[in-house]
């Protein structure tokens, strides 16, 4: 049960790190040769390697965006003492402020985890959208607080 709890904490840290664009900590959650494959309504994205993933994700989670990603209902299966799989239900909202667009929906994540030197790492992660809604906003949201606006990287829109 301790390993299952450690895997849950790993995935919770993943969601926190992407929404706060904490790329330094996010990098510690992945295996060096992680494989990522995300399928949305308007995109399909694949990348292999932690450094390539971090370089790409930093372009999406920045001072001109707001992310809100929650992973629910984990189904963790231990395959061995150092291998596990997990299925997670994602509910998310993503605002692209420079484009006045809101994307929200749900997806299912399928993950593979490896225990390396006593730590669980994400070895493979993929999701496919159950639904995705992309809305053009008439105006930018009136924010009273915007963490990434203060702490996120400044990128050109």
Q: Write down the overall geometry.
A: globular
Counting DSSP E segments of at least 2 residues, the number of strands comes to 6
Helix-strand pattern, N to C?
HHEEHEEEEH
Distance between the amino and carboxyl termini? 45 Å
Poorly predicted runs of 5 or more residues: none
The CATH topology label is: Nuclear Transport Factor 2, Chain: A
Task: Give a short overview.
It is built from four helices and six strands. The chain is α+β, with helices and mostly antiparallel strands and 157 residues long. A six-stranded mixed β-sheet has the order 2-1-6-5-4-3.
Characterization of this structure:
With 157 residues, the chain is of the alpha+beta class. It has a single domain, classed as Roll (Nuclear Transport Factor 2, Chain: A). It is 25% helix and 49% strand. It has 4 helices and 6 strands, in the order H-H-E-E-H-E-E-E-E-H. It has a 6-stranded mixed sheet with strand order 2-1-6-5-4-3. It starts with a helix and ends in a 6-residue tail after the last helix. This is SnoaL-like domain-containing protein.
Q: What features would you highlight for this structure?
A:
49% strand, SnoaL-like, alpha+beta, Nuclear Transport Factor 2, Chain: A, six-stranded mixed sheet, globular, 157 residues, SnoaL-like domain-containing protein, single chain
């Amino acid at each position: 049960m301790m390993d299952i709890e450690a895997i849950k904490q790993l995935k919770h840290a993943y969601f926190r790190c992407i929404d706060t664009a904490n790329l330094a900590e996010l990098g510690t959650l992945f295996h060096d040769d992680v494989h990522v494959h995300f399928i949305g309504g308007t995109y399909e994205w694949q990348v292999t390697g932690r450094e390539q993933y971090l370089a790409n994700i930093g372009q999406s989670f920045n001072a001109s965006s707001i992310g809100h990603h929650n992973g629910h209902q984990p189904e963790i299966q231990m395959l061995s003492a150092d291998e596990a799989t997990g299925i997670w239900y994602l509910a998310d909202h993503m605002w692209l402020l420079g484009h006045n667009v809101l994307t929200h929906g749900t997806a299912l994540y399928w993950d593979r985890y490896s225990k390396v030197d006593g730590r669980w790492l994400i070895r493979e992660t993929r999701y496919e959208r159950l639904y995705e809604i992309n809305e053009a906003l008439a105006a930018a949201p009136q924010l009273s607080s915007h963490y990434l606006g203060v702490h996120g990287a400044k990128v050109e829109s």
